[in-house]
Write a structure and sequence with these properties.
Elements: E1 3-5, E2 10-15, E3 18-22, E4 42-45, E5 51-53, H1 59-73, E6 79-81, H2 87-90, E7 100-104, H3 108-111, H4 114-126, H5 128-141, E8 175-177, E9 181-185, E10 188-196, E11 203-208, E12 213-217, H6 229-246, E13 250-253, H7 261-281, H8 288-295, H9 308-326
Parallel strand pairs: 5-6, 6-7, 7-8, 12-13
Antiparallel strand pairs: 1-2, 2-3, 3-4, 4-5, 9-10, 10-11, 11-12
This protein binds zinc ion (ZN).
């Protein structure tokens, strides 16, 4: 795989004229001690009219994606697809004015509140006071799971440069689809496959069947985990479909490095372990901390944000305990 490094992304050619735009792999994010270690990625088909899958969230990131495409295609990309309606995957859309921008109808649910989110994020990243407060509240939740001497930090380590939301106006896709949709870029077939609510209100993957390359959004991502048992079960079904039926050779994840088949299998094992161990050890009387210690998914955190599974297990615990209380 050839690679070209630019300011915001490493462009990795995963198949002929098909690229993963990978955000840097250092912990630079919203949470430093480990809920998310990478900003979001994009997938690029630089053939014919050109297709961009997801646009990240700052204008400089999106501009770099567009410039790379334009350089390789000889013109700006004509089509943009959003995998889901989370801010970090579509806020760059406005840079691609003039392109067809497609997304699943249901992703609009997640986009709905995003106008206010821009100013909230600016405040969060601009105010030391707000950061300190959040760190204390959030940090308390992860007591016992933070590495020694490493406090919880909610905010970008590298400063404003990497989180510059100047000029961002969340611009959801204008063209909404509901069913599987096929796009033809010359000889290249791209299938937009809706999966329903898995990681978000609505997740879509972009599948290139001839190349067996998958742009997965956050269905595959180092930081992604199910936050309810229903989502976990649905997610495992989706992973079975992707890994056993589509059988991709390369997966461009929503966050993290390009996945090969082994790495993808490891995500399935990780999710399976989360569900199985929860079911094995949960009782209506077990304290949360004890459940988490029994479940310990530490063997899966290599190359993954270390606190992500803790957050997911806490969400499953809260859901099950609430249900137990409701049932008397
Ligand atoms: Zn994401």
């Amino acid at each position: 795989m050839t690679e070209e490094k630019r300011t915001h992304f490493r462009f990795v050619e995963v198949a002929d004229h098909i690229y993963a735009a990978i955000s840097p792999a250092e912990p630079l994010d919203i949470t430093d001690a480990g809920l998310m270690d990478n900003f979001s990625n994009a997938g690029l088909v630089l053939r014919d009219g050109g297709l961009v899958c997801d646009t990240c969230f700052t204008l400089p990131q999106a501009e770099e994606l567009k410039a790379f495409c334009t350089e390789k295609l000889g013109h700006p990309p004509e089509t943009v697809v959003n995998t889901h309606g989370h801010w970090d995957h579509y806020w760059g859309n406005q840079v691609f004015a003039g392109a067809r921008v497609l997304g699943h109808r249901e992703m609009m649910k997640d986009c709905a509140g995003d106008k206010n989110k821009v100013s909230v994020f600016k405040l969060l990243h601009g105010s030391k006071l707000v950061q300190g407060l959040l760190n204390r509240v959030m940090g308390g939740q992860f007591k016992g799971w933070l590495p020694a001497g490493q406090p919880f930090r909610m905010v970008v380590r590298q400063g404003e440069k990497d989180f510059d939301l100047t000029g961002v106006t969340p611009t959801p896709p204008a063209e909404l689809f509901e069913e599987k949709t096929v796009l033809q870029l010359g000889d290249t077939r791209a299938e937009l496959i809706p999966l329903g609510a898995v990681h978000s209100s609505s997740d879509t993957i972009v599948w290139l069947p001839a190349e067996r390359v998958l742009f997965a959004g956050d269905i595959f991502a180092d930081c992604s985990l199910p936050m309810s048992m229903a989502a976990a079960r649905r997610w495992l079904e989706v992973l079975d479909y992707i890994l056993d039926e589509l059988r991709p050779i390369a997966i461009v994840p929503g966050h993290g490095e390009v996945y090969d088949a082994a790495r993808a299998e490891s995500q399935r094992a990780y999710f399976r372990a989360l569900v199985d161990r929860f079911e094995q050890y949960y009782t209506d009387t077990i304290p949360e901390q004890q459940l988490l210690e029994k479940m310990n998914l530490g063997e899966f955190i290599d190359q993954r944000p270390r606190l992500a599974w803790v957050m997911a297990a806490k969400a499953l615990f809260k859901e099950r305990r609430a249900a137990a209380k409701a049932n008397g």
